[in-house]
Write the structure tokens for this entry.
Amino acid sequence: MADDNKFGSKLGLIAATAGSAVGLGNVWRFPAVAYDNGGGAFLLIYLVFVFILGIPVMLSEFALGRGGNTDSIGAYRKLTPNTKWYLNGILSVVTPYIILGFYLVVTGWMVKYFVLSLSGDLYAVPDGVQPSEWFSECMGESIQDTWTPLFYTWTVIFINLFVLLNGIKKGIEKVSNILMPMLFLILVLFCGIALTLPGANEGVRYFLEPDFSAVTSKTLISAAGQAFFSLSLGMGILVTYSAYYPKDTRLSRTALITSSFDFFVALMMGLIIFPTVTAFGLQDSNLAGPALVFTTLPEVFMQMHLTRFWSTLFFLLLSVAAITSTISLAEVTVSVLQHRLRLRRRKAVWVAMLPLLALATIFSLSNGVWSNITIFGYNFFDAADKFTSNVMLPICAFLGCIYVGWKLPKTFLENQLTNFGTFRSYIYPVVLLLIRYVAPILILIIMLSPLFI
Ligand code: PHE
């Protein structure tokens, strides 16, 4: 791959990779899963899984990407020609494309709430209506309506198009370099405010004091699943991005920094949500995903001074987190089209993005006018979410571990972790052990868990 197709700086490549990892998984999934699973105990277990599952799988994907130095299907073709392993490459492209289809819709909701906060319309509660009712109504409308969600979803598609058309360095890297520090600053600010709220202690205690009596096998499985989703593992994303890493990038350091950052963001998000919710006495409200951010938090903002300002800043944070993840999801297909079909980058970007106008539309409408069309009892949106996260992702990650751990020669991983012997890697033997045995077994358990829980 030519050098103009590489990231230009260490910080830039970390910002881009972290931009993919930090997304709605950290922001609205993590606090809800932690809340359901005993707070502090979950946090600790999650941290352990980041180390024994997240980082090794991440490293195997980095090695595959940089070693293959092409797209996520091409890597398999190049490293093991005349085998069927490239089929896993195909899975690793189809999965993020479907995820992108519905992630764009969710990102659109975030952007809409950013606009509604900025304009103040979100807080124009009509006389005689309870704020909680008003926020629920607004949420329903934002999700189930026909045209408004479509308008915002398409807007997000065009934002992606714009960034991707500008290429790796001037598009993805530049945008990540601006957005990630911004995200971090906003988070720190919110954390500071949340922790100084009167009554915040109770929430902090819940989140940080482990209660191991709440830990069940479900907690372990949820923690492993969360580590997976949050680090964007199990699809071609990290394989694609690491093909853009220069030869001298230290993969283990990059994996450690990215996962720590991702963990830190989740931690800060918990330190924002739990104290806020207890301080405002809302612990009995709905803390899961959409309801948390679209109904519970606006109630909090309403009780604060500068309601619109805080609300706008918060939804900006969510939009930024989500947009950088959509960019990484889309880049997988762009890279495949460029290398497999030999399309020029600009053309590949258009070919990758235009069908999403239709795909994302189907997902958006399936929450509204098409909600009666179901597959196994789920509308398209939920069916796609469940099928990709519970079936496609684990299969792809499992095969990826087997491939790097068993199929490729051992020296492959070692060469990538030591940059072909330019320095020693003390963690290589441990990583190899984790990729060969621990990660595949854990992934199998996660995948089969619905059958026995
Ligand atoms: N890692 C992202 C998050 O935490 C989600 C994501 C999943 C992004 C899969 C890309 C691919 O929200």
